[in-house]
Amino acid sequence: MASGSSLPEEDLTCSVCFDIFKDPVVLKCSHSFCKTCLQRCWEQTGSRECPVCRRKSSEESPPCNRALKNLCEAFSKHRIQKPATGLESLCGLHGERLKLFCLNEEVPICIVCQTSEEHENHKLGPIQEAALKYKEELQTALKPLQEKLEAFKKKKQKCNNSAVLLKSQAVDTERQIRVEFEKLHKAQCKVADPEKLSGGRINVAEHLGNLKYRVWEKMMEIIQY
Predict the structure, then answer these.
(1) How many CB atoms lie within 10 A of CB 37?
(2) Which pTM was predicted?
(3) Which residues form the B box-type domain (predicted)?
């Protein structure tokens, strides 16, 4: 709701120029328009009918809607006094607010652009409706991309978890191998001196071969395939 009036801005907007009413007049059908907007429509169509409901009007000069005029003046005064937010976009050619959207060229335009030759016979609409339409189209286009992004994040997390697990297993396996090698080393050191054993010399090749086999056997027990 706008301060200074009891109606929202949409109810204070002319359906012909899409701007705040200027000298609004009211028809028998209760629809109101800017006086100049209504006269221009009647001149273009050659018929005195309501631009909204197409009801014929018997009045050449419809009466002024004074209540609506007072509301519009109060609203305009408040808008002028209100500090500028810097969020409103203005037409680069005419300095007017961009309140319309040209559907043919898909560009926002002002009410002055509406009457220019560049946009003559073009289909126009309120910029709010166009913004809502494009927002819905953008959301529809983004939905499959968002789903793919979520799937990618899940796969990435799964790969990260697997990498952490593999690293942990590798560290644990290395630790176990070191422990077993330490045990084998200690066992080797405890072998008696060959000169003190009865029966002559030790078959070195045989013992070394057995040692290599035992080391290999231990490693096979530790490493799981």
Answers:
(1) 22
(2) 0.37
(3) 90-127
CA angle (211, 216, 221) in 5-degree steps: 125
Question: Quick one: which H or E segment has residue 102?
Answer: strand 100-102
Report the greatest alpha carbon distance in the chain.
139
Which two three-digit tokens encode residue 36?
């100049």
3-class state of residue 192 by DSSP: coil
Degrees to nearest 5, angle at CA 54 with 48 and 55: 75
Contact partners, residue 140, CB within 8 Å, separation at least 6: none
Buried b (16+ CB within 10 A) or exposed e, 44-79: eeeebbbbeeeeebeeeebeebeebbebbebbbeee
Q: Which two tokens stand for residue 14?
A: 């002319």
Which residue carries 């927002």 as its tokens?
A: 135
The partner residues of 109 in beta bridges, in order of sequence, read 100
Q: What is the pLDDT along the chain (225 residues), one digit of tens a residue?
A: 444 445 567 778 888 888 889 899 999 998 999 999 999 889 888 888 998 898 888 888 899 999 888 888 888 776 654 444 445 578 877 778 888 888 888 888 888 887 887 887 888 888 888 888 888 888 888 888 888 888 888 888 888 888 888 888 888 888 888 887 887 777 766 654 555 545 555 554 555 555 556 666 666 666 654
The pair of structure tokens assigned to 115 is 């009457």
Q: Which amino acid is at 138?
A: L
Q: Do 135 and 117 touch, CB atoms closer than 8 A?
A: no
